[in-house]
Amino acid sequence: MRDPYEVLGVPRSASAEDIKKSYHKLAKKLHPDLNPGNKKAEQSFKEVSAAYDLLSDPAKKGRFDRGEIDPSGAERQQQPYYKTYAEGDEGARYRRFDGDESPFADDLFADMFRGAGRQGFRARGADVSYSLEVDFLEAANGLTRRVTLADGKTLDVTIPPGTEEGQTLRLKGQGQPGIGGAGPGDAFIEIHIKPHPFFTRVGNDVHVELPVTLPEAVLGGSVNLPTVDGKVALKIPPGSNTGTVLRLKGKGIPGQAARQRGDQLVKLKVVLPDQVDPELKEFIERWGTTHAYDPRSKAGIS
Asked: What is the Cα–Cα distance from 291 to 157, expressed in whole angstroms?
């Protein structure tokens, strides 16, 4: 596996926010739903996801940067040794050597060695991080997803309605076990939402562009419209134009923490037939001679 920084196209000095932005940009470009049948894009998407999984976890990132694990997360073979400095050298502290002398983990290792030797040494278990991808509608409506933890244990995770991109769920006590009877760490699951073919989320509102026929735009009518809750009948007002926005109150994303549910905003787009038949062409020519109008002048473009 390649260097995760190279995979995400960021320098080693990149901030957590820069790493996240680069991942989201690449994930949207390479997502299998947007590249059906493209095995190369699918493989690149998996590589990008694995790189982000490593670099988005502060503990894993730190260990990789120190050379303790490789890009796949596997342990590297290291054989450091320790020695005790003579008395008077700041209390004979333990120091680590990897060929060159360095004060790595000076007091930390000394305290660990002394603490491990004392009866009753306790330490809380380490936290663990996971990344979970869900569909747009799953995040909007909520669901329960079974995940497999690092120790092989499976757990049913409840994803609440209205979950946002990048939101992190905390599973208390589901991390690494503690030492000496201390409590376990926690598990943190970062949620990533797959792009939807036509829904776009803005805050708690859902935006969608709806194609309508020429008769529907001129005469009005009722059409079936998908929402996050299922299909509803939408009334198209007579004389609607491309760019007209209709609002469906309360048909957006459910709010969290007592926030109000959003709306669905429907932007109309008038679409002509694939082929304009002679009858329609003749009617427009006849109608146009007595009903001339200039939309460009109204828009200030003329």
From this structure: 62
What contacts 19, CB < 8 A, 6 or more positions away? Answer: 8, 10, 52, 55, 56
Q: Which whole-number Å values give the CA distances from 37 to 10, 135, 160, 248, in the listed order? A: 28, 19, 32, 36
Give the phi and the psi of residue 157 in degrees, each rounded to 5: -105, 125
pLDDT digits (tens, 9 = 90+) for 131-190: 899 999 999 999 999 888 767 788 889 999 999 999 999 989 888 888 888 888 888 999
Give yes or no for a contact between 100 and 160, defined as CB atoms under 8 angstroms apart: no
State the chain's maximal CA–CA distance in angstroms.
Answer: 105
DSSP 152-187: S-EEEEEE-TTPPTT-EEEETT-SS--BTTPPP--E
Please choose, from the candidates 182, 157, 192, the residue with its C-alpha nearest in 3D space to the C-alpha of residue 171. Answer: 157
Backbone angles phi, psi at 223, to 5 degrees: -130, 155
CA distance 45 to 12: 21
The pTM score is: 0.57
Provide the sign of the torsion angle of the four alpha carbons 110, 116, 122, 124, taken in this order: positive
Name the token pair of 285.
């020519």
Tell me which of 2.60.40.10, 2.60.260.20, 3.40.50.10330, 1.10.3720.10 is the CATH number of domain 200-298. Answer: 2.60.260.20
